[in-house]
Design a protein that fits this description.
Blueprint: H1 6-17, E1 26-27, H2 28-36, H3 43-60, E2 68-69, H4 82-88, H5 104-117, E3 127-132, H6 138-144, E4 153-154, H7 155-160, E5 163-165, E6 174-179, E7 187-191, H8 192-197, H9 204-225
Antiparallel strand pairs: 1-2, 3-5, 3-7, 4-6, 6-7
Helix pairs in contact: 1-5, 1-9, 2-3, 3-4
């Protein structure tokens, strides 16, 4: 699907709504309005999303008072915010209507399209364990652990710091370095596709969880076939 592995899409929808079991029963119009005008750091974002929601309803001839979603105004199986829904959702089953709340096909295709548009690279790695061959400390450690939401190194650069991928990979690949364990036992190398996942939720831990859950799902499916 648009070059995005099925296991990533399955994991995302599972994390977001437990495959449709928890899509939310809050009126989206109320949810967005309440946060948009609460005078908090989130107000600007939710005011923009409120506008996107009203535009969406006008374009699709939907009664805005009838749409249900999460307490924050996210909609459907993949929990798209209204702006994301407007720009990235697709009619994947070609019914002439986009429905990410009731059509699994549309939800799956829409998540895949979201990642594709935001830069997903087909058949490229996502996450890999890192092997550390020297002690990381001082300014080097600070530099490595800064801006962890960006692929701001190359494999060649990491090797200069004594950090090696667990599998052979091109030295010019853009990557990020991730330490998820304060004791230094959780070193990873994140590739550009991992950072595409962070567009869904601005958290490297979310992206890693989606990948790791997806791989477990893929393994279980493979075991069942065997």
């Amino acid at each position: 699907m648009y070059g995005v592995p099925a296991y990533i899409i399955v994991a995302i929808i599972g994390i977001e709504t437990d495959y449709g079991r928890h899509m939310g029963d809050f009126p989206v119009l109320d949810a967005l309005s309440n946060i948009a005008f609460e005078h908090s750091d989130r107000s600007d974002f939710f005011q923009r999303e409120l506008v996107q929601f009203l535009l969406l309803c006008r374009e699709k001839n939907i009664n805005p008072q009838k749409v249900l979603g999460s307490y924050a105004g996210a909609i459907g199986l993949p929990q798209f915010m209204p702006g994301t829904l407007r720009y990235y959702a697709v009619d994947f089953n070609h019914t002439g209507k986009i429905d990410i709340s009731h059509s699994a096909a549309d939800a799956i295709g829409s998540v895949a399209n979201f990642f594709r548009v935001l830069g997903w690279k087909t058949n490229q790695p996502i996450l890999m364990h890192a092997q550390i061959k020297t002690k990381l400390q001082g300014k080097v450690k600070q530099k490595l652990e800064k801006n962890i939401l960006e692929a701001n190194f190359t494999i060649a650069k990491l090797k200069q710091y004594g950090i090696y991928p667990s599998h052979k990979i091109s030295t010019n690949k853009k990557v990020g370095f991730i330490n998820v364990d304060a004791n230094g036992n959780g070193y990873y190398i994140g590739f550009e596709n991992l950072y595409v996942i962070t567009h869904y939720n601005n958290s490297i831990l979310y992206a890693m969880a989606a990948y790791q859950l997806g791989k477990e799902i893929e393994k279980a499916m493979k075991d069942n076939k065997d």
